[in-house]
Amino acid sequence: MTPDRFKAITSQYGQTKIAVIGDYCLDRYLEIDPAKEEISIETNLPVHNVVRVRSQPGGAGTILNNLVALGLGAIFPVGFSGDDGEGYELRKALRQKKGVQSLYLLKTDLRRTFTYCKPLRMEPGKPPVEHSRLDSKNWTPTPDIVQSELIASSARAAREADGLILLDQVDVPETGVITARLLEALGCIVQELPELLVLADSRRGLRGWPSVSFKMNAAELQSLAGTKADANLDEIRETATALAARQMKPVFITMAERGILAAAADGRSAHAPALPVRGPIDIVGAGDAVTANLAAALACGATLQESLELAMAAASVVIHQLGTTGTATVAQIGEVLEMAP
User: The whole model's pTM is what?
Assistant: First the structure.
């Protein structure tokens, strides 16, 4: 990518509006100082003293964080938070982010706030070490009244935004934001707005989703389309191209150290390699950075190849941020592109 094209694409970010529909989580980090470890008098078990607590939006909020870092003009979170302490922290964190407009984020006492509580052992001169997480989730189906409000908000956001990102983060079907009813409604939305960019990602796979752009990893492609576990790049390209033709939308396949591949409905394809590692890495959040940068670039007229190169540069920035779910700014992405072979 030339410097002029990089500038031409990214200079439009400040006028771009994207809605992120999905499961908003609270990432709560508990920083533990091992030098202050004690033994409990009552239980004789170790006591891990927390010396700092920090919180940030996670799940769909990680995608949102990356869009904020890119300087988008407006970002609309569409989802829910509980009427609880974690929900208060999540909404407060979202309010502090530039460009975020939370009019479509539902507060409800019918759901609890999805929370990842991450204890981190912090030692001077060493990367943080994450202990076992403590998660808070919803285990019952999302109530009909909540689903109805989310569907209405999704329709309004779609008419206001230049693009939509969908993230299904939950493990148990029908317990989060992306339900069968919402997907059915989304199918109607994309028929009404056929030119609207819609990019979808789901940890449970995208089988049965409407005609939108898919973003998935190679293992998810194998599960959905039957590729071989050891499929080479040409085989993945062939399968992705067939899937894009069936969806009538582009498909994006992340392949870890092999980079990322895109296929369009008309048979075109593109590939960008992963960039060299520059030191210790933490891959948490890399996929969400890819999603955010693909959507932002495509919404601003980038080609498939350009969007892949921007996404890989962003992922390279994020994986070198340790002990947090990182983000990449336009300046950081530009620096990585300048260093790329």
Answer: 0.92
